[in-house]
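Batch job 17 of 40 flagged for manual review because the log was empty.
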Amino acid sequence: MISERMTGSRLIRSVLPAEAETVAALHARARATYYPDGLPDDGTDWVAAWRAAVERPGSHVLCVVERGRIVGLASFRTPEGAPADTVKLFQFHVDPDHWRGGIGTALHAACVEQWRADGRRSAVLDVHVDNRRAQAFYAGRGWEPDPENPPAEGDHHLYLRYEVSGTGE
């Protein structure tokens, strides 16, 4: 597992349970950008959810730290019922104040590095249909529509797949 990795002036490392509130706040700022009517309140306690993700066995939560501040994060693990060589990218966010600065690219590369080290062959994710920025980001890194998971009627997510063993990042 990547414990720490320097990329220029950025540190990529695992998130600590005590950082769940900071991570939840970044998550909310990033998600709010693609909900035209504001971030929906579904009652989820995101601080508790992030703490659980960090502490869950088999789960990885990476963050990018720049000038002492968490500016990007990614959460992934093998989803229940999936083959052991598949990983799901559950969350991937960059603080909107830091977009277009290479943080997402560095974080994605760290994820792929970890997936390869773990022997993963493919990665999957779902992205909100209104999040065009993320869709473009993923497409630029080789993610493609998942043929095993076409969008269902009324679903607000697109399902993408990435071949980890490929020649991408």
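Reviewer: the log was empty due to a logging misconfiguration, but the result itself is present. The CA atoms of residues 11 and 68 lie 9 Å apart. Unflagging and moving on to job 18.
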